[in-house]
Amino acid sequence: MSDHASLISRYLPALQKLYGADEQAYQQACKRYLQLEDLFFQVFPAASTRTDVRFYSTPGRSEILGNHTDHQKGHVICASISLDIIAAVQPTDTGVIRLHSEGYNQLIEVNLNDLAVKEAEFGKSAALIRGIVHKMQEEGLKIGGFDACVISNVPGGSGLSSSAAFEVLLVTIIDDLYNGNQLSPLQRAQISQYAENVYFNKPCGLMDQCGTSFGGLIALDFADSKQIKVKQLANPLTSSNYRLLITKTGGSHADLTADYAAIPAEMKEVAHCFGKNYLAEVPAADFWRRLGQLREQVSDRALLRAFHFFQEEERVAQAISALERQDLPAFFAVVRASGLSSALLLQNIYSNHAPLQQGVSLALALSEKVLQGQGACRVHGGGFAGTIQAYVPTELVEKYRETLEQVLGQGSVYDLQIRPYGSINLANLL
């Protein structure tokens, strides 16, 4: 442990607020931050003579309801979760951002005098840093260099938005260091999305970044992409006997690009039949009335996916109402209906290109066997491979974990909390 391990001690009240709902989670968090601080002074030994190190935390996110509706300007419910990316940061006057991620040998360096898009950086973390700095400068915000070390327990490729959390973390750091936290959570999310779209070269919506930026349980209305409407909801699990569990089912997203791209493309085919670009712009009554004609213009699968969209929009409204009433049975009923719709209509439980690989289907079948009608389970996020989500009674958590990990592997089940804080400097919790 470094001689500067005591730096984090001043933030213990903040850690208690952020992680203290569970004593074991709090103790683990304290160890993580001590590890982070030690790593920072190992990577940047010259910093050992200074104490202006700041600590940040940005959560992952879980999609609660609204499966594949955001890209059609629909409605979504999502939540920030207790898994997070944490960072130790020290501002510098070098005009360079240097960042080290635990588990990676290479130190990322981005010169702030060179913020052009670089094709060689597509898909790399340096592209996100460069894109975020460029966008913030373009928006008239101050920028500057810093040294940072980050540690993450948000598993990559899990549908919990590890990449969005990293992006929002970077925006938060620059906003905090050089702009006195001027940006709203939505602005932080939009800057992050820009970097991923333009510099990282990956099309993405805004849900993931919003989920990590705002904190808590939120309802999102994507009708106006420039001004997303956000509604904070009460967390119904706080005083309940249920836990939110996410399970990694195995499989890779690497070969699923065509599957993911087909969903918005086919939904838009239906919207184009009405002269619109997005299904949210099409009145549901018009869709149902013209269904027979539409079958002559688009594929049956496109129609089924449009079915899912219009009915999922209704389910999001029903879920919001149930959450506001703190009516968990009604909420679980909507979640189950949404999961069934994703399986039968949206058809994102497994890939038609690899029909023998059905990890998500297997995990859902195992979940149903354990739950026996209690709580709810459903595919999580984009689907085809990846994760499932389940609301499990506390007394069944260990049985659920044992049953699924026996088939899907040790450590595949994550027991999560919905955390009330989004991306934050720990000092703001003191």
TrEMBL record:
Q: Which InterPro entries match?
A: Galactokinase (IPR000705), GalKase_N (IPR019539), GHMP_kinase_C_sf (IPR036554), GHMP_kinase_N_dom (IPR006204), GHMP_knse_ATP-bd_CS (IPR006203), Mevalonate/galactokinase (IPR006206), Ribosomal_Su5_D2-typ_SF (IPR020568), Ribsml_uS5_D2-typ_fold_subgr (IPR014721)
> Residue ranges of the Galactokinase N-terminal domain?
52-91
Annotated GHMP kinase N-terminal domain ranges read 128-216
Q: Which UniProt keywords apply?
A: ATP-binding, Kinase, Nucleotide-binding, Transferase
Q: Does the keyword ATP-binding apply?
A: yes
SUPFAM superfamilies recorded: GHMP Kinase, C-terminal domain, Ribosomal protein S5 domain 2-like
Describe the family membership recorded for this protein in Swiss-Prot or TrEMBL. Answer: Belongs to the GHMP kinase family. GalK subfamily.
What's this protein's name? Answer: Galactokinase family protein
Q: Which organism is it from?
A: Amygdalobacter indicium
